[in-house]
Amino acid sequence: MTKAARRAVDLYSEGTRLSAEIFTPPGEAPDGGWPAILLCHGWGGLKDHLRRYANKFALAGFMCMTFDYRGWGESDGRVIATRDAPPLTEAGEQTMTVRVLREIVDPVDQTTDIRNCLAYLWSEPGVDRERIGIWGTSYGGGHAVFTAGHDDRIRAVVAQIGGFGFPPEHLDWARGRAADKARGMLDTIVPQNGVDGIEGLKGTPDVGRMATHSQLGAAARIQVPTLILDAEFEELNNRLEHGWAAYMMIRQNAPAEYATYPCKHYVVYDEYYDDSTDRAIAWFSKYL
160 pLDDT exceeds 60? Predict the structure, then answer.
């Protein structure tokens, strides 16, 4: 398989080092630079899982960036003070024992990481700053829509088998988790033998943060072309309440399309890989 040029880079998201990769199309950059795509993976995903997508997009003429969220893969974890640490009431360097948090699924931290990756990609030599798109898959599909709803640097979106919200019937339970964490009664943000975990999915969700993070709310703000690809027999959520609902909001303010594949969630990565990436390339080629 033909390979695009790829190089590893480090960037910083609110002080935490993130590991990322830049994929460059063959040849010289056109006048004004290449269009670019930021790729966002889903729940427990790593940048390595998206390498084949980024390579295919780059060969189609898009500069691409993949990355690991904080606490995942090759990125640093978030550092917090231990509970017995002295009060941190003075600025400057200090020596102390800390806790490193890893493999937390936190949409607030993750969308912050996406925003900082976007800042890096936007400033990358050879990128046309007026032609930047975002592609996300699974939980990252919701992140892509959320980012596009809050950042006008995004000019086109592809969201694949995305998750777009927290179940409202669990809202009080999630708020209880957030309250217990705030009071220091429960370390739900630290992985501990599957507490609040979901069977078959890696990592510990911060349900308190998820409950107040609305991808659908952001969908109503989107004003750029958006393609949503879904699994017809999606088993991780009700697609009518997620991808379809997001599409119905977006189409009121921007060009939008919604398409499904006759399969369950993970089959899109295998049997429908070629078709889904070809659709994404066509979408970005049309609107970037």
Answer: yes
The pair phi, psi for residue 112, each rounded to 5°, is -65, -45
Task: Say whether 264 sits in a helix, a strand or coil.
Answer: coil
- Burial readout 193-221 (b: 16 or more C-beta within 10 A, e: otherwise): eeebeeeeeebbbbbbbbbebbbbebbee
Q: How many helices (H) and strands (E) does the chain have?
A: 8, 12
**Distance between CA atoms of residues 202 and 76, nearest Å:** 17
63 and 30 Cβ atoms separated by less than 8 Å: no
* 254 token code pair: 């921007």
- Taking the C-alpha atoms of residue 9 and residue 17, their distance in angstroms, rounded to an integer, is 10
Q: What angle do CA 22, 24, 30 make, to 5 degrees?
A: 135
C-alpha 133/C-alpha 64 separation (Å) is 9
Q: Which two tokens stand for residue 115?
A: 């925003």
> Rounded to whole angstroms, how far apart are CA atoms 213 and 262?
29
Q: What is the pTM of this model?
A: 0.95
| CA gap 112, 183 in Å, rounded | 25
In this model, does residue 192 exceed pLDDT 70?
no
Mean local confidence (pLDDT), 154-160: 98
CB 134 within 8 A of CB 153: no
**Residues 13-52: tens digit of each pLDDT:** 999 999 999 999 999 999 999 999 999 999 989 999 999 9
- Backbone dihedral region for residue 211 (phi beyond 0: left; psi -120 to 50: alpha; all else: beta): alpha
Say which residue the tokens 């993750």 belong to: 110
